[in-house]
Design brief:
Layout lengths: L1 H18 L6 E6 L5 E7 L4 E5 L2 H16 L2
């Protein structure tokens, strides 16, 4: 079962790398093992991941990121 999960993860990452273009942030809605839901954002430009507790927080981060990159 571990081997199947590892292969699935490798394939998912390969597909993600092909689908994601121009380094837009990658946003995922996740659930931890305790049932807590959160948003994970990966920023290709900075090579950093961020965790947010709400969709609104993600939207604010994206708007601020856009403002920093395109308005200065």
């Amino acid at each position: 079962m571990k081997a199947i999960n590892s292969i699935a993860n490798i394939l998912r990452k390969a597909v993600d790398s092909l689908v994601i273009s121009n380094h837009e942030p990658q946003v995922r809605y996740k659930c931890d093992r305790h049932g807590n839901h959160y948003w994970q954002v990966y920023d290709f430009n900075t090579n950093k991941s961020y965790i947010f507790g709400s969709e609104q927080d993600v939207r604010v981060w994206i708007e601020n990121r856009h403002y920093r990159h395109y308005c200065f």
